[in-house]
Known about the structure:
By secondary structure, the chain is an alpha/beta fold. The protein has two domains: 5-173, Rossmann fold, CATH 3.40.50; 176-208, no CATH class. The protein has eight helices and eight strands. Strands 6-5-4-3-7-8 form a six-stranded parallel beta sheet. A two-stranded antiparallel ribbon has the order 1-2. Strand 7 (135-140), helix 6 (149-162) and strand 8 (163-171) form a beta-alpha-beta unit. The longest helix has 14 residues, at 29-42. The relative contact order is 0.13. The structure holds S-adenosylmethionine. Residues 24-25, 32, 55-58, 61-62, 79-82, 85, 105, 107, 109, 112, 141-143, 146 line the site of S-adenosylmethionine.
Amino acid sequence: MTEDTIWRLMVTETLNGLSLNDVVGGGDPKAVGALSREVVEAVGAITPRSKVLDIGCGCGRSAAAMASFLRPPAQFVGVDIIPDLINFCRREITSRHPNFNFFALRQESEQYQSFINRDSPTQWIDSLSALDDDFDLVIAFSLFTHLDAVAATSMLDMVWRRLREGGYAVLSFFVLNPFSRRSILAGRWRTAFLPALGTEDFRPATGR
Ligand SMILES: C[S@@+](CC[C@H](N)C(=O)[O-])C[C@H]1O[C@@H](n2cnc3c(N)ncnc32)[C@H](O)[C@@H]1O
């Protein structure tokens, strides 16, 4: 099996009729993975020996991009609420890189509920608190986009608790600015962010 196979499998394997890659947002999976690695490298948040936690790891796009870089004793832990994605990561990544481990988090999600098979045999955890608290780096790409203000606040607290002192968190957020507002209203986003436009929490400083 070539290194490129995993990127192809992300596109050909399906869950509820969608490719695994489309379940987690689509695009070119290899390019998305490479971008996440470039970002953490650019800000100096990772070394080849880092212990990395990826919250909302999806089908392992970041993990696959970092697999050749993070050699033991480096560790990578991925967590997601969709057990089938975790099983894919375990089958395709952990099998080749035993220092990469993946867990399914028991957590409700309005948006992803139809993808969550509670009976799936996998490595479940009930809370992120079950994980170590000495990670050098916590990443979460396109995770906060799917959390409301309350869930995002408690997730930020959890990120903080999983880090060692001096560790890094590299998190991506959806920015509501005039461009994204116009795009939402024009229906150019696959995810319906419309509710966010009306809430105080998300109103930009300009008040528009
Ligand atoms: C847009 S996808 C991004 C996946 C991955 N970070 C990437 O960039 O390829 C968001 C992921 O977050 C997961 N997710 C949503 N809510 C979560 C939560 N509370 N805890 C952990 N994962 C969550 C979803 O199942 C989904 O796989």
